[in-house]
Specification:
Synthesizes alpha-1,4-glucan chains using ADP-glucose. This protein has 475 residues and is an alpha/beta fold.
Length: 475
């Protein structure tokens, strides 16, 4: 089977978040299932500079301006790159101008990506299309209104990001007039790219089973729960995984010392390096927590700051790595200044520091208010830092709480607390600190965490079965 994946980012070429990790890792996992994936990406400077390849004939309408596709291969990944400098030839963040505001022409930029996906799927004979998030949301619309049908799957990575644009954009899209309606792109009077993806796809997936249930409720549906309930039979949740070759503490060159589940003792060197990197006191007894991610309301960083007194009362230390909301960045700096040696903050993103946090912390905090899947907790499990997570979305699906029954059964892999509650996070931090101080018990919990299968194997099999199902139904 030949599958065309279309997305706005993919490692190792361009990354702003977990979407890129998934899009970059899934093709290799699907190859083992007999699915050959070609990934269509926008031709950002970082992408075009990294590839060679040959041009592929593709005519885009004048409304999108001059463009061409280039076929290339990067490592084990087959690529199609949409070279359209007027849309994508901009350095920096793929979605935002300097200063952080979205590019004003994001609607037409990513409409061009969706159109190119539909044209390439038909012209190059792909069996199915896999579109990721709102930036690829119009691929299904162009396929539905195009010259030949190709079945498609649309994957929601985060329903909060919807790609909503003024209705004045619609005439420039080149879709028939009846496509701008409830049965189409219209979304509260605007053009909804994510809404289009949900409406036109043959099947809808999201990145965990629990999130697939949550988004069909008003509380988590972000205005799209009615549509998702109406299409409930087409919606499923498939957990994200990790590239376990790339994320492997036994071979990771970014670490101060490599280690494994069979020999975790060298983690102590990573702990010391983490404390030094974040300005924490070299205290071997202090329960050491880390937060790695966006400093944002969704990710619960404000809850962590509220819970700092409880963490300090438990004798703990905290290392914070991330960037995001300016007020939260400032609050993290203030906390580090107020509690020198106990709280450390590095504002920015550094891949090596992130890996060191996973490898050196006792526990990684993932206190999100909502979380479609999350990769931080998977990295934490892989690197032996049993995560403390909010009981939501993919976090609930991937971490087994160390409650008394789970500890007695020997199956706990981390800790959970109710999402959105700083007091409950503080209590969970103190419970976790007590568990860490039970050295033998914590060693068992760590072994359980590192023994989890966080690979793509099971999930890739589920995706492959889904793709075969839609292709067979379309035959």
């Amino acid at each position: 089977m030949r599958l065309l994946a279309v997305a706005s980012e993919a490692v190792p070429l361009v990354k702003t978040g977990g979407l890129a990790d998934v899009v970059g890792a899934l093709p290799a996992a699907l190859a083992a299932q007999g699915v050959a994936v070609t990934t269509l990406l926008p031709g950002y400077p970082a992408v075009t500079e990294a590839i060679g390849g040959a041009p592929v004939a593709l005519d885009l309408p004048d409304r999108f301006g001059p463009a061409r596709l280039r076929a290339a291969r990067r490592g084990a990944m087959d690529l199609l790159v949409l070279e359209a400098p007027q849309h994508f030839g901009r350095a920096g963040n793929p979605y935002s101008a300097p200063g952080g505001a979205p590019w004003e022409d994001n609607g037409i930029r990513f409409a061009a990506l969706g159109f190119a996906a539909a044209e390439a799927a038909v012209a190059l004979g792909f069996d199915a299309v896999h579109a990721h998030d709102w930036q690829a949301g119009l691929a299904g619309a162009y396929l539905a209104h195009g010259r030949r049908r190709v079945p498609s799957v649309f994957t929601i990575h985060n329903l909060a990001f919807q790609g909503q644009f003024p209705a004045a954009l619609f005439p420039a899209l080149g879709l028939p007039e009846d496509a701008f309606g409830l049965a189409g792109l219209e979304y509260f009077g605007d053009v909804g790219f994510l809404k289009a993806g949900l409406w036109y796809a043959d099947r809808i997936t999201t990145v965990s089973p629990t999130y697939a249930e949550e988004i069909r409720t008003p509380a988590a549906g972000m205005g799209l729960d009615g549509l998702l309930r109406g299409r409930a039979g087409a919606v499923s949740g498939i957990l994200n995984g990790l590239d376990t070759t790339e994320w492997n503490p036994a071979t990771d060159a970014a670490l101060a010392a490599r280690f494994s589940a069979a020999d975790p003792a060298p983690r102590a060197a990573n702990r010391a390096a983490l404390q030094a990197r974040f300005g924490l006191a070299p205290d071997d007894a202090a329960p050491l927590f880390a937060f790695v991610g966006r400093l944002a309301w969704q990710k619960g960083m404000d809850l962590v700051l509220e819970a700092v007194p409880a963490l300090l009362e438990a004798g703990g230390q905290l290392a914070v790595l991330g960037t995001g909301d300016a007020a939260l960045e400032a609050a993290c700096r203030d906390a580090a200044a107020a509690h020198r040696g106990r709280v450390g903050a590095v504002i920015g993103f550094d891949e090596g520091a992130a890996r060191l946090a996973y490898a050196g912390a006792d526990s990684v905090l993932v206190p999100s208010r909502f979380e479609p899947c999350g990769l931080a907790q998977l990295c934490a499990l892989r690197y032996g830092a049993p995560p403390l997570v909010a009981r939501t979305g993919g976090l609930a699906d991937t971490v087994i709480d160390a409650n008394p029954m789970a500890l007695a059964a020997g199956c706990a892999t981390g800790m959970q607390f109710p999402p959105g509650d700083a007091a409950m996070l503080g209590a969970a931090l103190q419970r976790t600190a007590a568990l860490i101080r039970d050295r033998a018990g914590w060693a068992r919990l760590r072994a359980n965490a590192m023994g989890c299968d966080v690979s793509w194997d099971r999930s890739a099999a589920s995706y492959a079965a889904l793709f075969r199902e839609i292709v067979a139904a379309d035959a």
